[in-house]
Amino acid sequence: MSFPDPANGSASDATLLASERAYTALRTDILMGVHAPGAALRLSDLRARYSIGPSPLREALFRLASQRLVLQESNRGFRVPPLDLSEWRDVVTMRGRLEPAAAEASVLAGDDTWEDRLVLAHRHLTRLGRAAELVRAGRDARDVSQWETAHRALHRALIAACGSKWTIHFCDHLSDQFDRYRRFAPPSPEVQEALSAHHDGLVAAGLDRDGPACRQLLETHIAMTGAAVSDVLGRLHAGA
User: Fold this and answer.
1) Could you read off the pLDDT of 131-154 as tens digits, one per residue?
2) Could you tell me the pTM of the whole model?
3) I need a labelling partner for 64 at 20 to 30 A (CA). Which of 17, 98, 201, 207 fits?
């Protein structure tokens, strides 16, 4: 009988940890806009930035490519996908179809644990302030990142009880793309204020167990963001 070599096991665990660390760091920086749309992702630059070996970085890049957060091009390596107005509209349309329906189902099916999770997520986001306030105050990237994490957690909590793991999975990927565009083409402060007020309304509808109202408000929330970002993207392309 043969037994696994503990040393090999340790090496394998270390490789997995390095790969996961590379994936998490790269994904976060792409979504937060550290790597600009269209920017090349050279292994030499990434190794210097993250202090991670080439193999874990390649694994992370391939994984991100499968999620369409990275483009892999023949003989040209990897780069961040550019911003494309038609793709943005496609993302908005698909998110508008999936997430509001999931929210309605979640509101109608959620138990007390789901309700507690929603309340806590909303409280955390509220304590961090509104997005427009952070921008006006010139808060640093860490504060903005914390707000974005809390914002995602609220949307995730809203649909958590929808009963479909696949729907949640697809909503997560659509949210990644949605947020990537939104951070490079942010809506005006006035629109951001309205969107923040929507969060209060979504939670109120959830706690009232009013699924149709929650669905309708979330449809409005996504559509308003979609229109505002489309306007910014259109102006950016016109000025290019």
Assistant:
1) 556 554 545 567 778 889 999 999
2) 0.85
3) 98
